[in-house]
Write a structure and sequence with these properties.
Blueprint: E1 7-16, E2 21-26, E3 31-36, H1 38-42, E4 52-57, E5 64-70
Parallel strand pairs: 3-5
Antiparallel strand pairs: 1-2, 1-4, 2-3, 4-5
């Protein structure tokens, strides 16, 4: 499955966990775990608690996602 197949949802980072995982509270009040996508790791984009992010969520496993974009 490619990144284009993921559903784009907005949310807020509520917790930073070990191993590069983050807890994200989506706008529809669902909490998921997510990790940074490859481009964000490559260009050292920092994500901290309280940031607004866009998360790509797979339709097959809606409890995990990829952080695709950090809003300013």
């Amino acid at each position: 499955m490619s990144k284009e197949d993921l559903a784009q949802l907005d949310g807020k980072v509520v917790d930073a966990l070990a191993g590069g995982l983050y807890k994200i509270m989506l706008d529809n009040n669902v909490e998921i775990s997510a990790k940074l996508c490859g481009k964000m790791r490559r260009f050292n984009i920092r994500v901290v608690v309280g940031d607004r992010v866009t998360v790509g969520v797979s339709p097959y496993d809606p409890t995990h996602g990829l952080i695709m974009y950090r809003h300013k």
